[in-house]
Amino acid sequence: MNIIKTKKLTFEYIRRDDEGNIEGITRAVDEVDIDVKAGEFIAILGHNGSGKSTLAKHLNAILYPTEGSVFIDGKDTSDEEHIWEIRQIAGMVFQNPDNQIIGQVVEEDVGFGPENMGVPTAEIWERVEESLRAVGMYEHRKKSPDRLSGGQKQRVSIAGVLAMHPKCIVLDEPTAMLDPSGRKEVIRAVRALNDVEKITIILITHYMEEIIHADRVFVMDEGKIAMTGTPREIFSRVDELKNLRLDVPQVTLLAYELKKSGLKGLPPAVLTTGELLEALRI
Amino acid sequence: MIRDITLGQYYQTDSIIHRLDPRVKLVATVFFIISLFVVNGFTGFILAGLFLFLVVKLSKVPFKFMVRGMKAIIFLLLFAVVFNLFLTPGEPAATFWKITITWEGIRLAATLTTRLVMLIMGSSVMTLTTTPNNLTDGMEKLLKPLKYIKVPVHEVVMMMSIALRFIPILFKETDKIMKAQIARGADFESGNLIKKAKSLVPLLVPLFISAFRRANDLAMAMEARCYRGGGHRTKMKPLIYKTRDRIAYLCIFAFMIGTIVIDRIFPL
Amino acid sequence: MLILDHLYHIYDEGTAMASTALDDINLVIPKGQFIGLIGHTGSGKSTLVQHLNGLLKPTSGNVYFNGADIHDDGYNKKNLRSKVGLVFQYPEHQLFEIDVFSDVCFGPKNLGLDKKETELRAYSALKQVGITDEYFYQSPFELSGGQKRRVAIAGVLAMRPEILILDEPTAGLDPRGRDEILGQIALLKAETGITVILVSHSMEEVAKYVERIIVMNKNKVAYDDSPAKVFTNFKKLEEIGLAAPPMTYIMHALKEKGLNVDTAALNVNAARDSILTALLG
Using CB atoms, which residue from A48, A206, A254 is nearest to C272? Predict the structure, then answer.
C-alpha cells in the first residue's frame, strides 16, 4: 500500500474584495495525482505561489480537498474519524522555526506531540530522548529555544514530529529562513531519518542542491505537477526548469553549457563535481 | 531598551527554587503579594524584603538581571511617587513656592514604591524560575475546581502560556521594526502627544500583521501535532508534591503569618 | 565616503552576559563601490551595518561620514539616515501604508520635503526598482515576496541615499526571484553610481555582482579584497563555515587534475570558456 496517494486533488479558494464580495476563485492545486511508496525520499520543487505549500498542507489534514481525495496510509483525509491518526502518521515541519516551537524548553517542546496523543509519561520521556538523539540535539534538551541557532531550532521541530512516531514527515521549506550551515544541518538530519529510520520524506524547497539525494522529484507550476522524475532526469531539463523560475546546481549548469558548446561525451545531467571530472576523463 | 524587560522571561539555571513544584511557587507568590498589602509599616516591608532577598539568592538568578527588569516600570513608579508626594494632605514637611510636600505624602509614596517594586520582583522570581509549560500545568491543576462551573481552565491557561512564550519574540520584533522605520527617517521621540501617537502607526501596523501571522502559523503547527484541547492529553512532567514542596509550603505560610503579626506588634 | 575607525561594540557591557559583537573594525567605504558583506549568523555583520547609519552607537571607536563624526553632539542623524539608506531583511517590518505609493512616500515625507518633491521621489524610486504603475495603488501586503522587497527598497531609495545597504535582499525568494532582485540592484548601481553594500551569507550570490568582498568572522574582518582574491582562500573560508561559490570548487578540482583552467572564473560562461580553451586549445 502506498503511504501517500492523491486522486485528482484540487483545492480552490475564493478571493474577496474589501467589501467581502466574491472577486474570483483561485485554483491553488489543480487535479494532482501523486503516489508515494513507504520509505521514499520525495522532493517537491516549485517557485513561490506554485501551489506546493498548499499541496503539503493536504497531506497532514490541515487543508481538505475541494475536489478529489487524499489517502494517507490508506485513510481518507476528508473522513473526520481519521484526522488525528493521519496527523500522527504524517508529521509536518514548517518554514518559520519561531512560529512552531511551543515549549520554552527544548525537551518540553518535543514532548508536546506525544502529550497530545495521550502517550503515558514514562514513554514520553523515552520518545523525547530518542528523537532528540536522532537529530543530534540531545545535549541541548534543557535549553530555551530562543538560545538556539535557526538550524538547531528546525532540528528541534523535526524531533517534535519524530516523537509522534510518524511514518512520513512533510517538510514545508524548512530551510528557507536559514543560513548555509543551518541548511546543511537540517538536510543532513532529514537524510539520516530517511536512511536509518526509513521514514518517508516529503521535502519542499527551492534550493536545488538539497534535492540531489531525493529518490524522486516533483516540480509544481500553477497548481499542477509540471515535471516528475529522478533528480538526474529533472536536472537534464535545464531550459524547462528555468522557464519554471527554477535553477540547477552550478556544476550541472556548467556541464550543460559545455555540451551546448559542442563538447562531446557528456551525460545528460551531471550532478556533482566528481561526475564532471569523470565525464571529462581527466 | 526593549530587551531589558525581563518580566515573563525564563532564566535557565538549576536551583532549589527552579525545582519547586509550580503550584508551590504560584501559591507563594499570591501569599507574598497578600502580605505586601496587609502590612502597613516598614517592619513588614523589611521582613518581606529579607524574604525576597533570600528567595532570589536561592534561585541563582543574578540581581542585576532582576533590577534591569524594573526599568520598564520606572515611569509608573515616578508617576505614583510624584502624585502621592504632592497631593496627599497632612502635616507639611517642606514647601516650595505653591507646592507642599507632607510627611504623609512621603510615607505614602515610600510605601507605594516599596510595594510595587517588591510585587514586580516577587512575580518575576516566579516567572524567571518556572518554564511557561510548568506554570501552565501548575495553574491548570490549582484552578481545576473551576471546571465544574464551566470555566475552560486548560484553554485559558494554554493561551496565557503561549502569550508568555511570544512576549520576548514580539519585543525583539518591535525593536527591529522600530529600527527599520528609523532608518526611513521616522521619529518616535519628539513632538506633542498627538504627533507621538501618530508616529506609532508605522510601528504598530507591521507589528500587528506579524503577530497575526505568527498566531496563524502557531495554530496550524499545534494542530499538526495533534493538539485538540485538554481532554486527551497526558503529561510529560506530571506534578507530584515532594518533601521539599511541603517544606516550602510551611515556609511561605510561616512567613506570611509571621510578617503580618510582627508588623502589627512592632510597627515602624 | 564612510570611514570606520577602531570600532568596538559590546552588548550588555558590564554584565555577566556581556558579549563582543564588533572587535576592532577598520574599514573605508569609498563612493561608488559595489560591496558584498559576508558572514554567517552571529558573525557581527548585522551589528556592523547598524553602525553605518547610527542606529547603534559604538562602545568605542568612531564612524565618519563625509568627514564628520556621526556621534558628535548636534550631528543631524536624520540627515545621515537619508544619506546612508539601510533596508532590513524583512520587508514586512517596514511596510505599513494603505498603498504602495504612500508607503514609499514615508521616507521623503519624514525629511520634511514638500508634497510635490516627495511624490516625485517616490515615483522615480519605484521606477528604479522596476515597480510599474499598475501596482502603485495596491496594498503592499498583497504583493508577492519579490515585489514587497522591491517596494521596501524603493522606500529607502526615495530618500536619495548616497549609500544603499541591503540586508539579505534575497531571503525567502525562489531562484528566479533571487536573480531578478539582484539584477535590478546591479542595474540601479550601474545607472546611478550609488554605493551599494550587499549583506549576505552566500558567497555565490554576491560573487557575480560585487567588486569587493568583506568577510566577517567572529566579530572581526577576516578578509577584505576583490572576490577573486578572497576566494583563493576557499579552504580557510570553509573552516569558518562559509563556502566559496561552487564554481571555485569545480575549477580548483579541474586544476588539481591537471587541466589548465582559470580558477578565478566565477560565472558559468567564464568557466565554460576557460575549460573549452584548456581542453581544445
Answer: A254
Query: How many Å lie between the alpha carbon of B202 and the closest alpha carbon of chain C?
Result: 6
Q: How far apart are the CA of C104 and the nearest CA of chain A, in angstroms?
A: 22
Taking 50 as the threshold, does the pLDDT of residue B47 lie above it? yes
Q: What angle do CA B97, B98, B104 make, to 5 degrees?
A: 110
Task: Using DSSP bridges, classify how beta strands C19-29 and B92-96 pair: parallel, antiparallel or unpaired.
Answer: unpaired
Testing the interface with B: which of A102, A108, A153, A177 to mutate, by most B Cβ within 10 A?
A102
Confidence of residue A87 (pLDDT cuts 50, 70, 90): very high
Q: What is the pLDDT of residue C272?
A: 93
Pick the residue from chain C with its C-alpha nearest to A173: C172
Which pLDDT belongs to residue A71?
Answer: 95
Query: How big is the A-B interface in CB pairs under 8 Å?
Result: 103
Q: Mean pLDDT in chain A?
A: 92
Give the chain A residue nearest B238 (alpha carbons). A121
3-class secondary structure, A15: strand
Contact A177 C146 (CB under 8 A): no
Contact at CB, C253 and A257, closer than 8 angstroms:
no
Residue linked to cell 561526475 = A275
Chain A residue numbers touching B134 (CB-CB < 8 A): 108
CA C81 to chain centre: 15
Instruction: Give the amino acid at C238.
Output: E
Q: Which residues pair with C5 in a beta bridge?
A: C62
Beta-carbon neighbour count of residue C26 at 10 Å? 12
Where does residue C27 rank: exposed (0-12), middle (13-18), buried (19+ CB within 10 A)?
A: middle
- Name C214's Cβ contacts closer than 8 Å, sequence gap at least 6: C27, C35, C36, C37, C38, C221, C223, C224
The secondary element (H helix, E strand) that includes residue C164 is strand C163-167
Query: Nearest 5 degrees, angle CA A261-CA A266-CA A270?
Result: 105
pLDDT in tens, C63-95: 999 999 999 998 999 899 999 999 999 999 999
pLDDT average, residue stretch B119-136: 84
**Which tops the pLDDT comparison, A254 or B99?**
A254
Give Cα separations from A221 to A32, A51, A110, A229, C174 (angstroms).
11, 7, 35, 15, 13
Interface test with B, best of A100, A127, A168 (most B CBs within 10 A): A100
The shortest C-alpha distance from A140 to chain B (Å) reads 12
Residue B2 pLDDT: 45
* Sign of the Cα pseudo-torsion (C123, C126, C128, C134, in order): negative
| Residue B61 with chain C: CB contacts under 8 Å | none
From chain B, pick out residues whose CB is under 8 angstroms from the CB of A108: 131, 133-134, 236-237
Across the interface, whether the CB atoms of A206 and C174 are under 8 A apart is answered: yes
Asked whether the beta carbons of A163 and A113 are under 8 A apart, the reply is yes
pLDDT tens sequence across B55-105: 999 999 888 777 777 777 788 788 878 888 777 777 777 777 777 788 888
Residues of B in contact with A105 (CB under 8 A): 10, 12, 131, 133
In tens, the pLDDT along A126-152 reads 999 999 999 999 999 988 888 899 999
Question: How would residue B192 be classed by pLDDT, with cut points 50, 70 and 90?
Answer: confident
